[in-house]
Amino acid sequence: MPTYVVMLGPPGAGKGTQAAIVAEKLDLPHVSSGNLFRENIKNETELGKKVKSILDAGNLVPDDLTIDMVRDRISRDDCNNGAILDGFPRTPAQAEALNAMLVEFAGKVDVVPYINVEDDELIRRLSGRRTCRENGHIFNLTFNPPKQEGVCDLDGSELYQRDDDKPETVKERIRVYLEKTSPLIDFYRQAGLLVEIDGGREIELVTNDLLGILSVEG
Predict the structure, then answer these.
(1) pLDDT digits (tens, 9 = 90+) for 124-155
(2) Could you confirm whether 90 is annotated as catalytic?
(3) 213, 193 Cβ separation under 8 angstroms
(4) 71 is catalytic
(5) Which of 52, 71, 90, 124 is catalytic?
(6) Which CATH number is 15's domain given?
(7) Among 64, 106, 198, 202, which one is most buried in terms of CB atoms within 10 A?
(8) What pTM was estimated for this model as a whole?
(9) How far apart, in whole angstroms, are the C-alpha atoms of residue 118 and residue 200?
(10) Set 38, 71, 108, 173: catalytic member
(11) Which residues constitute the domain of residue 73?
């Protein structure tokens, strides 16, 4: 059976970084909903055109479109053995849709690591975060700085500070995340799939915990 892992964690917890590391270690694709949006918009796919028109109008992408995009990605050959999901699902309704979708691929969600970090640490991390313009790669000036200031190590594009990574907006992002995601956390806790991990430690220690959980669950 394929292995599907749903990574959860508040902004700045290192969820994307850990998802990429674990995906490489397990030789599974890292499926990030944010990257999927960017990829489809950049390649001007039919889904990408729909998403762009919605975003350009200042609206939120509806569940069915997000789900179609994830299904399209999971249907590719490199996902035959499963995937590490990052940024999807975001709500219990999306989680239910994911469960139904994975049945199509003879799979299910195996485990949901929740990387938890104290608010003060999240604020410190996010204010130092820099994002790659081309492909959304994440760096941190304190914990994971680029080799060359302002330049992505992976594709050479410009690194910038997102408006929502500025200290004055970080607290609100954390509050909104917890408010909107707590039902999803409860959903997976009640399903017996949620495993909490202390994300306030060094990257390697968090990775070791994740790999331990996944080897047990796998």
Answers:
(1) 888 888 999 999 898 988 778 999 999 999 99
(2) yes
(3) no
(4) no
(5) 90
(6) 3.40.50.300
(7) 198
(8) 0.81
(9) 7
(10) 173
(11) 3-117+180-217
